[in-house]
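Worked Example 4.2. Consider the chain below.
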Amino acid sequence: MSLDGWNTLLVLGGIRSGKSEFAESLVADAPTVRYLATAADAGDDPEWAARLAAHRARRPASWRTEETAADPRRLADVIASARPEETLLVDDLGGWVTVLLDPAHQPADDTATVDELAAAVRSCAARLVLVSPEVGLSLVPTTPLGRAFTDALGAVNRAVADACDTVVLVVAGQPCRLKPAVGQPTAAAEAPPAAVAALGQPAAGGATVPAQAGPTGELPVTPPLPGSPPVTTPQVPTGPDTVGTGGTAPTTTLSVAATDLVIQSGMDLPMPDEYAGPQAVDQLASLDLPGTGLGALEQVISFAAATQGTPTPTPWRSVRVLLVHGDHAGGVAAGTATAESARRAEQARAGQGVLARLAAESGASLQVVDAPAAAPIEHGPALSAEQVESALRYGWRLAEEAAEAGVQLLVLAACGAGTEATAAAVLAATAGAEPPAVLARVVTAGGQIDDVAWMARCAAVRDALHRTRRSSRDAVDVLAELGGGDIAVATGILLGATAHRLPVLLDGPVGVAAALTSRDLAGQARHWCLLADDGGHPAVRLAADVLGLDPLTQLRLDLGEGANALTVLPLLRSALALAAALPSRPEGDGSAEEGDEPDPVEEAEPDFHEPEPEGPGPTTTGPATEPAETAAARAG
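Applying the procedure from the previous section yields the following structure tokens:
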């Protein structure tokens, strides 16, 4: 039975139906599992104690068991606070209902407690499996207590099933899927052409389809979102000199969920753990290292600890590269070869080129995202307000899907004509920068400096800023007037990653421009970002300073936005692996214990006596002096 694409799953079944074994098989491939045991202590019931012991014996040693029987509300708290990289197994809700109805926990608002549990399941960021007995198929119990239990459990099962994205009923060891129904797609159907047109996506043949007007001649307020692009896993080429010839293994297209999300200024998103980072850095001082430590890479340990919520962070195993492809028309693209960015995007889709090769070496998946093309900003807005809204939600959803797939780190990459000048325009509008100061020199494909193209870009940015001098500097308005589709999608990715506690490795002008706009929408977003290298790019350096991001390296890499970050990623993983694996410095290594005073050392008298001068000479009370004859001879 295929159960791909689930994040929260409810397993129902009768007594001895095999529901627990089936639930355990679903999470058997997880590196660690938090097993939430809900049953109360067996007391003096040997048969019930034997059942509990059988459950414990089946659990692998790597699983961590947590008891929740003491407080029914604790189950909802644990589920709601679980992190995206975790896997939770709750066994079972029948035991939880038993504790909930226990007189020791009364009086209590049982309905509110059930609602809290359902809300926690619905918002859970981790992979979650819940087991519950199905007792609604039997006769109505003849005792008041039995009827209270079956009624309460039926209400809990309904509430949790509604909150889960998948429900399975196990009958005689055979799983039967109830939700979604067999034949019902778990992902939205492929987007119709109108959805692509709403975002200005390239249509067949490479032409950009403009947004279509409705029956009244106005653009739709909330255009439909396009389907998610496929996720590929580049493979390392086997040939000796085959950079760019590796194949790709497409994975299942991620599910698409409709959302009524509204992205606007003042969003309240989560912050990383403020205590875990400093604690992780403090622990580095106790590691058994021959030198003084990890130097600047301590920043990586602190960032990983804060975003993972633990003072002992682990290396990022699952990494996804999101390559946002979007072109800008007009003067900002001066000096750019025609269709060069499209070639780079197709190269990445085919598993070829620098980005795909580095992703393969890092074991990272790759997703190429086509953003709507932007109009010339010197003449008018880059996008309509509706296109910006749709692009933001699209980016949010891409990050959400990555988190649901178990991705632990996003690498934000970009390619497109005019991206550097557009990022300079956004930086000038949001941080007050002077465009010529943040626009890098234009280098042609042949390695020549093209100052004419650079001046054309400066003029385009200058005219755009003059055109919008009286416009609002709200982030959404800046994206519509100056930013364009790629920066809007990237901004949505950063906001969605922040909402799902997913760290992001930035690299290049589009990434830092998106970080600036996301900061103005939700100030927490920049705390989930890490800058690999500024590449010597003036706009990236200034934006990093505004955002408070210190580049981890100063390698001045220029391999393309995203490729620079992937080059640095193995170093970051090595630092995390080292910090996680090294033991603490053994005690008694010769260092003085805290509070010990050094032993006093008696100063020995030097075995030296000044010889007595021969004959009369000057008498001194200080240091010995030269004989007078020698001093006179030396002076003469």
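Confidence is low (pLDDT under 50) at residues 185-223, 238-259, 590-610, 612-636. The longest strand covers residues 127-133. Compare this with Example 4.1 before moving on.
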